[in-house]
Amino acid sequence: MSHPARSPVIQADFVISAVSECDFPQEGIPEIVFAGRSNVGKSSLINSLAGNQRLARTSSTPGKTQSVNFYRLNRSFFFVDLPGFGYAKAGKVAVRQWQGLIERYFQSGAKIVLAVQLIDSRMTPTKLDLQFFEWLESLKIPHMIVGTKSDKLSGNQLSAQARVISNFFGGRTVVMSSAKTGTGCKEIFKRVLQAAAVIESPKD
């Protein structure tokens, strides 16, 4: 069994669980957004990338995250954990509230440099996943597709599911990852740093 590679993160801090737009930080630093259906493993992946298993609270209860959670890494950019979407038992009113909060976040003028859309690698993406993908496309936000929980698949299953997910999104490259083993985390973080450098690089 492989083990997670050491994270390049030196400092990671929880900042705020925002429940309205007035709670969104106004620090002007790059923001990397993590989004996906409920129980897809967002918090676990964030913890793995940050090298801090206690940073983002994980839960076995789908739909637990009902706020936009901000984590500051290396004092230079945010990881933003969006509420999971598509959990039927949450109730229509709660779902509308979450959707409204997410929409207001994207419209808030935040310096979003990358959206990481997470798909459970064991499952076929859904209509909701495609709708979110197309929404990001319409907003012209750079984004990547990441398959989570890949450690639960065999080698043959991994290749097959990577093709299924890629084909679902029109041939888009898919990074298969595991918060447990660290698979894919190095590649994801490389994209994160490339995206953050768009704003971090000083101007002459």
Write the topology of this structure.
Blueprint: E1 12-18, E2 31-36, H1 42-50, E3 68-73, E4 77-81, H2 92-106, E5 112-120, H3 127-139, E6 143-148, H4 155-168, E7 174-176, H5 185-200
Parallel strand pairs: 2-4, 2-5, 5-6, 6-7
Antiparallel strand pairs: 1-3, 3-4
Task: Report on the architecture of this protein.
The protein is of the alpha/beta class. It has one domain: Rossmann fold (3-Layer(aba) Sandwich). It is built from 5 helices and 7 strands; from the N terminus they run E-E-H-E-E-H-E-H-E-H-E-H. Strands 1-3-4-2-5-6-7 form a 7-stranded mixed β-sheet, sandwiched between helices. Strand 5, helix 3 and strand 6 (143-148) form a beta-alpha-beta unit.
Give average pLDDT, whole number: 86
Query: Which radius of gyration do the C-alpha atoms yield?
Result: 16 Å
Sequence of secondary-structure elements: EEHEEHEHEHEH
Helix percent reads 25-40%
Q: How many E strands?
A: 7
The best one-word shape is: globular
Quick rundown:
The protein is an alpha/beta fold and 204 residues long. It is built from five helices and seven strands. It has a single domain, classed as Rossmann fold, CATH 3.40.50.
